[in-house]
Amino acid sequence: MTAAPAFPAPNDIGRRARSENFEVAGLVLGPRTRATLLAIYGFARLVDELGDAAEGDRLAALDAAEAELDRAYAGQPRNETFRRLAAAIASADLPREPFARLIEANRRDQVQHEYATFDDLLGYCALSANPVGELVLTAFGVATADRVALSDDVCSALQVIEHIQDVREDAEAGRIYLPLEDRARFGVALEDLTARAASTPLRALLAFECDRAAALLRSGAPLVASLHGRARVAVAGYVGGGIATLEAIAAANYDVLDVTPSSSRFARALATVRALRGGR
């Protein structure tokens, strides 16, 4: 019998679904939904870790993860992360395709290290972020085509915000998620991305990208109003987390290089209440 792949432990992996976005939402979840969401995020963090830091052939490691995903759907998981996922799949009838897109996003990271336009970046977000939103809605039993479309805007916004926070980290890893045409427009050089402090051109570029992320959040905000109960509060927590992070970046005058701007728990809770009330 073939041994199970030695994937990283769930508690030691990745950065997807930053705690400030999950924290508020997580407070209102019932145990079944919480277990399902933790299984989804455990999988997402695992494939992120394989794509970002696995030793050796990362594409082969991602292929192994997809094989384990198939085993989870067949009810034969061998790894703890995938055992949790198999239980969530059975409990919430989670579709396979969004998980496959998360793997594909990390495959793309191995071969594509920058994006020419913002539309190109949004194409990447459709693989790396939007599937999580679809799975969250499915976990709550509220996924519809209209809601998934709104969720895509919210998730793409959160992914763009994460890229803005992680400019230095990504650049030092050889990945640049600030679009090439935008960098050229604002006169941002590669060395600006790893400087001790953000240059004036970089601050202007990041303010521009934050405005784009805010527009996506506003576009997706009607998703909150379409929901009820725990799903409504949880999704408002994601939207509020994104709003609060944008406010923290603006308060830092768009310098994300010296210290990564992050929002306080109070700011996230307040932004979540605003999202629930339809405020901006």
Q: What letter string, H or E per element, gives the SSE order?
A: HHHHHHHHHHHHHH
Shape field: globular
Looking at the structure, the CATH topology is Farnesyl Diphosphate Synthase
CATH superfamily: Farnesyl Diphosphate Synthase
Number of domains: 1
Structural class: mainly alpha
**Biggest sheet: strands, sense, closure?**
none
Mean pLDDT: 91
Detail the poorly predicted runs: 10-25
Structure description:
By secondary structure, the chain is mainly α. The protein has a single domain (18-277), classed as Orthogonal Bundle (Farnesyl Diphosphate Synthase). It has helices at residues 19-26, 31-53, 58-73, 80-92, 97-111, 118-128, 130-139, 145-165, 167-172, 180-186, 200-220, 222-225, 229-251, 265-277. Helix 1 (19-26) runs antiparallel to helix 13, helix 5 (97-111) runs antiparallel to helix 7 and helix 7 (130-139) packs across helix 8 (145-165). The protein is globular.
Tags for this model:
280 residues, Farnesyl Diphosphate Synthase, globular
Brief account:
68% of the residues lie in helices and 0% in strands.
Topology:
Layout: H1 19-26, H2 31-53, H3 58-73, H4 80-92, H5 97-111, H6 118-128, H7 130-139, H8 145-165, H9 167-172, H10 180-186, H11 200-220, H12 222-225, H13 229-251, H14 265-277
Helix pairs in contact: 1-13, 2-3, 2-4, 2-5, 2-7, 3-4, 3-5, 5-6, 5-7, 6-8, 7-8, 8-11, 8-13, 11-13, 13-14
